[in-house]
Every structure is written in C-alpha cells, then in structure tokens.
Amino acid sequence: MNENNIKNNFFKKFQNFIYSNLRNILILIAIIFLIFLSFQIYIYFSDQKLKNTSLKFFNSIQAGSEILDNLNEIKKSKNIYSTLSTLKLIQLNNEKKKFSISNELYKELIFSKNLDNLYKSSIAIHASYSLINASYIEKSNNYFNDISMFISNISDELESYYSIKREIEYLFFIAKLDINGLDYKNNMEVLNLYNNISNSNLISSSIKERVKKIHEFHIYK
Question: What is the reported pTM?
C-alpha cells in the first residue's frame, strides 16, 4: 500500500468517526462553551459587585451620621471591603472610647478564615496596644483575657514582629501590675522580662530604648 492510500484511508476513517459521533461532539462543544460563558459571567458580576462595594465603602466613610450603618452593611460582604469596613468601625469606636465594641470587632477579624498569618498578627498587635490603653483609661481588667488571646495570635514565625511581641508582653505585664495596684520594683517576673528584652540580640534597639524608659520610670517614681 503506497503512501497516498494510507493517507486516504486515514482521512476516510477520521471522516467516518466525525459523522458517526457528530451529535456527541456538538454536545461536548456546547458544554465547553457554556462552562466558559458561565465562568466569564461569574467573573463579570463578581468584578461588578466588588466595584459597587468599593464605591459604597468610599462613599460611606464620608457619609456623616450614616457612616456606622453603611459600614455595618458593607461588613457583611465577603471581600476585602468587609475587612476594611471592620477596621474603620474599630477606629471610630476607639475614637469614641467604645472599647468593648472595638474588642468584639477585633475578635471577628482575628477569627476570620480569610486572614493569613501576617494580617492576623498585624491586627492582633493593633488590638493588644489598643486594649492595653483602654485598660488604663477605664482602670479595668475586663480586657485582660482578650489581650492575652491577641498576643498569642501574633505569629512567632514572623521575624519582623518578634520585637514588637516582646514589647507588648512587657507592657501588658506592667498594665496588670498598675491596674491591680501591685509593686513593680519587687516583682521578679517583670524584672526578668525586662532583663531578657535588654539582653536579647533579636530585639531592636528602638524597642529596647522604649522599654528602658518605662522601666526607669517605674523604678524611680
């Protein structure tokens, strides 16, 4: 059998295959097209929804007395603007010294499945500083358990946050002593914590300096 005959037989078999399976092939093409079309429609509406939420968010932060209602509504969305709205609500409540509301919002973010270690640690740091400050303002230990939880959520795997976490632990310890009326000078646990920070090669010089000033204030006051 020469080469031309081989080619003719091949094309004939291929032609017969197409004719006998034409219906199935058309159905398969239609299914692939519908899947592609559905995906494009999903992308389009998801993009439009994100754009609408974006517009609503930026309008909300300029909405005067309606800002809280608008932000609470956006907070229900499942995208980046939900997190931004929650952070904005935290800022507003902290400014109004409504720390108990801020605390619950912090916890919503911390326990969100959408956050990776970096963002979770950043929020935990912000929450810890804010609630230590709130404890002094309210002269209360109401937030102590939650502060401990926030500190535990600052990842030890993030090298850049190591110094900050140690500083927060030190500040929190002092807050517990101050608010409970306990003595700093004779508390070996806080003094050991201070010495560990001072002697650590892993902690930044700026944080060491801040901790030193706080230590000296409590020693010589």
Answer: 0.67
